[in-house]
Each structure stands twice: as C-alpha cells, then as structure tokens.
Amino acid sequence: MAWPGRRAPSGLEPVVDRWLGSLPLRERFVLDVTLKAEPERSVPLPASLAPGLRAALAARGVTALYAHQAEAFGAARAGLHVAVATPTASGKSLCFHLPVLQALAEDPESRALYLFPTKALARDQEASLGALAAAAGLGAVAAAYDGDTPAEARRALRERSPVIVTNPDMLHAGILPRHTEWARLFQRLRYVVLDEVHAYRGVFGSHVANVLVRLLRVAAFHGSRPTFVCASATIGNVAEHVARLTGVPAASLRVVAKSGAPRGDRRLLVYDPPVLDERTGLRASYLKEGVRLAGDLLSARVPTLVFAQSRTSVELVLRYLRERCRDALGEGAVMGYRGGYLASARREVERGLREGRLVGVVATSALELGVDVGALDAVVCLGFPGSVAGLWQRFGRAGRRLAPSLALLVASGAPVDQYLARSPSYLLGRAPEEAQVDPANPEILLPHLRCAAFELPFARAERYGPLDAEASRDALAYLAEHGVLHEARGRYHWVGDGHPASGTKLRSTGWENFVVVDALTGRAIAELDWRSAHAMLHERAIYQHDAEQYEVERLDYEGHRAHVRRVQSDYFTQAVAQTRVSVLQESESRPFGGAGGAAAAAGAAAGWGDVQAVERVTAFKKVRFVTHEPLGYGEVHLPDMHLQTTACWLRLPPALFRRARLGRASAVDALDGVAQALAAVCSVALLCDAHDLRVGLGDGIHGDLPPRGPEERWADEYRNFEPTLFLYDAHPGGVGFAQRIYARLEALWGEARRLVEGCPCPRGCPACVGPPDDAFPVPRKSRAWRVFEALAPAAPPEP
Questions:
Q1: Which residues, listed in sequence order, are joined to residue 229 by a DSSP beta bridge?
Q2: How far apart are CA 98 and CA 81, in angstroms?
C-alpha cells in the first residue's frame, strides 16, 4: 500500500505498509485516514524590519515570513492585542519575538515582559530570544527571573535587561509587590508576551487573570499601556478566552488562527488491541501493543515521540522499548521524560531531540507544552489523553515541513478509549474543547484585590478588573469592614499585616516535594511532588527511574526524603488507594426540586457545606514485568491525605431507583453517567476547568447482598443503598464553586438532562454520560435518562 502524496521519510512508509499488509494487524486499525498536506503561505519580510533582524533571519535561512507571522507582526506593531492560535511547530515564537526585537532596535529603552506557565518553557524561550537578539546585533537583551535566579543577579537584571522572562507565580509574588524596584521595566513596558494561554484555565487561569489586572494597574501607574501578544494551542474559544484572561476589549484583539506554515501529509491511525477473552471482554495490554508498534518505528530509525498517561507507564514503556530495540539502536537512543526527573536530565533530553541524537523519547504530558524539541516523524499516544484538544496538541509534535508524518493512537480498555475505537470519526468531527476562566469568582478575586491594594492605594471610584464600578466599591468597602483596608480622603489604603501575595497561591501545589536519594552514592536522582510520593515512594515500593529499578529502603516522611537502592527486580509495584468523602458541617439544605415537587416527595434532598475528602494509600500490588500477572500484595502505612473543601451534594432515596427500574449495579453505573453529564454542564456554567471539580458517589453504597426470595427482593436489592452524589471543589478550602452549584442545582440538573436528551448518540458517549459499559443489557444513556426522569418526570427523548 503506497503512502499517499509526497514521499514518506526513510523508514516510515515501509513500517506502515508492513502493518497494513499483515491481516491480523490490519484488522486492529479501526481508523486510517490521511490529512492532506497544507501548502506554505508566505509573504516577503516587512519593509520596516530592522536591518539587523533581517540579517539575523537570513543567516537562519528565513527570507520570508509565514502569513500568520506577518499578520501578527503587523497587528502588534499597530498597537492591537494579538492572539495567535496556530498548530504546534508553526513558528509561533517569531510572532512575539519579532515585534519585541523590532521595538528594541528602534528604542533600546523599550521593555517587554514574557510570561510562561513553567520555568522550563521560560528558560527555553530565554535562550531562543537571546540567540536571535545576539545575531541581530542587539546584545544580551533577555534574562530569566524565577526562583532559580541568584540573589546577586536580581538587581543587575532589573536595571539592565530590556526583556524579563518569568512565570505568573514570580510576577505575582516577586515583581508586582516590589514594583517600585522595577520602575524601569514598568515605565517603558511596550509588550507583554503570554505564551501557552490554553494552559491558563480553571482556578489557575482565574488567578492569572487577576494577576494580569494588577499588572496593567501597576503599569498604568508608571505611565505605560502595554500590548499583549498571546500564543495558544487550538481551543474552541480563543478570542473569548484571551479577552477574559487579559481583560482587553474584544474590539482591540486580533485573532490569528490561519497558519501559513507548510505541513506534509499526516497519516492518522487508531489501533484497538485484540480481545483475549470474549466472555469478559479483556483486551491485550495497550502498553505492550503500543511498545510493539513504537518498537517497529524506532527499529527503523523513525524519530518517534511516545506519550504515556502516567509516570509508571513511562518507565514500563521505556524499559520494554530499550529491550526491544537494543540490537537495532544500541544504548542511549531512547530516553524518558516526565515529572520527577531532575531539570538537568530533562534539558539534556530536549537537546538530544533538537540535535537529532535521540531516535525516541517516552514522555508524559510534561512534554506536551511548547518546549522546543524540533519536529519528529511519528507520535504514538498510548491511551486517549482526555480531550480532543490535548490529543491534537500531542499529534502536532509530528511533521517536519512538507515531510509526511504519522499520528497513532493506541486505545486502552478504558470506556472512553473503547468508545473512540468504536466511533473513531469522533476525533475528526469534534471541535476542540473550550478553556474557561472566572476571574470575578469572589474566593479568587478578593485575595488579589488585597494584593492590589498593597501595591497601590485604591481611589473610591476606581474600577477593579472584572468588576463594574459599583461592585468594586462594594468589594473595597467589604475589605475595609474587615480591617485590611482603611479609607481616608477618598482612597483605600492597605493596613493589614505583612505581604498579602505571600499567602495567596496561584496553584494548589500542596506540600513541598520529596527528594529521591540513591542510598549507595548519596546523590539525588529525582524529585516528586507530595501527592505522588504517597503512591510511589512508600517503603518496599519499586521506584522506576530511567528504566532502572530502585527499591525504597526508607521513607523519611518528615524530612521529605526517600532513600532508594538499585535492584534487579522482575516486578514493579502499583499503589492501591481509597477515597472517602464525609460531611463536616452542613451550611444549608433543602428538598430537591422544591417542597411540592415529585423529587422532594420521593425524599431527594440537596445540601452544601464543608466536607473532607480523605485519600489513603492502603496497599501496594506487585506486578510482573512483561506478563503483568499479579504476584501479591503488601501493606502501606502512611498518613492520610486530607482535602478539606466545600461540596454540594444530592441525597437520592432508594424509592427513586425502584421507580426507575434499576438494580444496584445498574443504578451505580447510571449515576456515574449522570455525574459526568452534571459535571460537564457545571464546568461550563461556572466557567471553570473540569479538573477544578470532583464528582463522586458516597454515603450508603455498600457491597451487594444476595436476594433471599422473591418477596424480599426489594429489601435486599436496596438495603443500605442511599447514595449521595457529591460535587466538590478540588482546592483546599474551596473556591466557591460548591455554593454556586447548590444555588442553581435544579437548573443545572435540567441542563444536564437536556444535554443527555439532545446528544445524538444511541447508547452514551464522552459528550454526555460517558461511553457505555456493554456488561449491562440496557445502555448507560437509557439508564441515566431513567434517573433524570424519576427525579423530574417529563416526556422521554424521541427515539
């Protein structure tokens, strides 16, 4: 079977042809389409471009700009705010580098601020911008300012660096509260570059939106009105998201979404592992099937990036690939990349990819953001990452200009993956998900209003960011009533204790990291976040690092250090965890649906208040490499992980399930579908990210009880079955989502009901109640509808 279009890279076409020429393999590919090449659309370099910049680009072989680069450059130069949303590897960096460097060429006293969501991205772009500026004869213009910047260097870069490269956390806590020390930056601030804006969503994005409000306020105080130049992966609401995030008027925002960069044919394949047991539906391991396919690519020396879903999966796949490809590639040609690796190790992998020294890398989503690793010929995704936008972001790593490339999804046995295997066209017809922020959320806004008052006093009539003038006055008066502001002569002044930014975290990072120490050498080999440490660094765990096995000999929990020793192990370990949600204090409750409604008459009740979600790692399972057979269990004794937050809940009476004609197992699966639909409409209605809300069942779901006879079937079927549907904030202390859900629960329930009713799928899909579980004779969508109907009777959807 010939590769369509242009000639494929050496090695890629024969591998794909071999797969599709094998009948057993060909039957497992449930989707095979070619996305046709896109021609280059370019324009001459702008006549106004500084000679030094023109020469620097020419030295790199750039004699013209892609159409989107030229459009972004012209809009930014005209003073319009710009949002560039073109595919991965389309040259977005030049969209913001060129306006900044042109401004510096015209006026060396101009200033710019670059913001990136991670330090790794910031350091990567600092090097990129610095190299281009040096080649243009502008000298050393960029300096990174983050937690790793030495104290003695900070004053010098404040005074001398025209471009500061940092992250929102450092801007929030290190720059804005000390803006008088940064007067030279703010007095001449021409551009604010905001990269990877799709990463700023949900609670984190809402915090960042408030930081940007404060940034513009401080800049105005010093006499500047900067232009935003933003870059994003493809999302469903670029213009709306950038406008809400930056607070700029939509009329002054230019969206650049049509890429002028060339792209070769992209072959898209979806592979579904074979069924091993028809009775249970058990499929072959998607990791091992993925290793088989990725191994074929790597053995043919096709530059390939393999995405796995977890850190453990990365290490397993890395080990298997090295064993499979050792003879063909030798040592060191395939590396891992994930959170937990030291920064120096990750930078070395990035360099190896850019320079072509590595044939393959196995990574988590840590490599999904825009770190420059060059372009590869193939991307293999082991499991669906959870969103269409995320999948295409990963697939965008493959493709070098006009060369054909391969994008391969290996479906797991998870319901969503199996839905995609049955309906793979969903990937082609589904619009990318939208990014949501809610900067006006009081739980988020008020702490930033305190920070803003610390930075500069507020005039009584001053408007703050997302609030109108009246709401701003009310918020300032509220803070004054609580003793943190003082009004005098028409201005509100900060009178609270300390530095409010230090107590306001933009991200819920929890406790400090754990350091992994090699007991033999005393050298730190890795670093893990507090939550992951419970699952991966308990005593007797096999910690996998760079495809090697280390056994945890001792966990110094108080000192946050795990002492490990390298071992030759034929098994790895998996943590077994349990989560329990319990109500601490009920703030309010009511009959669900109104006192006279059918739902209330059945006994349904809604409430909200403080809850505690307790996660406990109780045991670990030993799993043999290669065969993945279980070898036994061990106990784990670690402190619980507590999340005290707020939740809205809905208590569902047993009579509801009798009315809906659902047994226990069917009811639990149906409620899971209801929860997915409810979570979807809540995230949209509340303008938050799906990760900011957690949905679960609790209170009264117990083990199955066998029926004792026909007359007792009802009692046995529903004994101790009084489920509660929880929707809780995934952030310590809560951020106000639960109370807002409670206030609108009936309306949101109705929206979820309409979502299910209006979805065209027959059995259930990721867009409504989740993919169906074929173990039940009645489709999940029908059973979920019965629950909606039992609580609020209405005409059923048309067949």
A1: 82, 193
A2: 15
- 335 DSSP assignment: E
What single-letter amino acid sits at 303? Answer: P
Integer Cα distance of 660 and 340 in angstroms = 48
Q: How far apart are CA 600 and CA 64, in angstroms?
A: 68
Inter-residue contact 386 to 397 (CB < 8 Å): no
Task: Map tokens 């910049």 to a residue.
Answer: 53
Q: How far is CA 333 from CA 122, 323, 381, 536, in A?
A: 27, 12, 19, 27
Residue 274 vs residue 594, higher pLDDT = 274
What the block records as the tokens of 4 is 């369509």
Pairing mode, strands 458-459 and 163-166: unpaired
Report the C-alpha gap between 648 and 735 in whole angstroms: 13
Strand partners, 725: 650, 697
Q: Note if the pTM is more than 0.90.
A: no
Tens of pLDDT, residue by residue over 717-736, are 556 677 888 999 888 888 88
pLDDT tens digits, one per residue of 364-415: 877 756 566 666 899 999 998 878 888 888 898 887 667 889 999 999 887 7
Cα–Cα distance for residue pair 591/589, rounded to 1 Å: 7
CA distance 725 to 163: 50
Q: What is the mean pLDDT of the chain?
A: 86
% of the chain surpassing 90 pLDDT: 48
For Cα atoms 443, 465, 450, give the angle at the middle one, nearest 5 degrees. Answer: 50
